[in-house]
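As a warm-up, study this chain.
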Amino acid sequence: MRFDFQQKIVAITGAGGILCSEMALFLARQNARVCLLDIDLQAVTDLQEKIRKEGGEALAIACDVLDEDAIRKAHETIRKTYGPINFLINGAGGNHPKATTTSPVFAKEQLGQEKTFFDLSKPDFSFVFDINFMGAFLMTKEFAKDMLDSDDAAIINIASVNSFLPLTKIPAYSAAKEALSNFTKWLAMYFSAVPIRVNAIAPGFLLTKQTKPLFYEKDGKTPTKRLRQIIEGTPMKRLGVPEELLGTIGFLLDKELSGFVTGAVIPVDGGYTAYSGV
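Now compare it with the structure written out below.
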């Protein structure tokens, strides 16, 4: 895959994570100047060095996407270093065990024995919802100002298969990703006359170091019950890998290829959201 993003400036939140770090590396290899935003400064500093060793341009910035002051400071740093951005990828997100129920289906016998829906606290639910949705809202509100006078501007939100089909046990994450999908379409309409193209990708189940313990038992080979359910519901009968997101990222940022695409939420999921189970 070759795209030419020479002189394009892209800000990526969650850049220290597994998926967004792959996106950052990919875009740097396509000659983009990548601004790496993450609450974990060490993670993006390491990524910055890796990109620079390859001859790319990168800037690591500590940024909490729920802190408006931190977002403004990050924006100022980017503008002083590179100028206004062309592209924004809202990738910060994730789930947390505190916002997860123990069982997929409720039974009265669970009360007092395991974590049910009734045990989820507002702070824990809000933390997961906000990092996945409010972070994208705040980042877009700040950084889209750069794009108002550009003839080549795009925003990509990282949604999920949860945007189409809520997964069991993770209500906050599922709700946030569906909200992000709807927000993507709203923004696409709102910015259509500027124009800023706004789209999202919805990754399916990917095999990474982070997800491997969820998919395999402690021996690292035996599939968990959840993995068996996932594979059964995925027409391609396998997990994806992070690199399989990159072609869609490149396509959505390349104006020559996707200049008439906005408001789309594109699943990259091996057919998971296309299969009814029957």
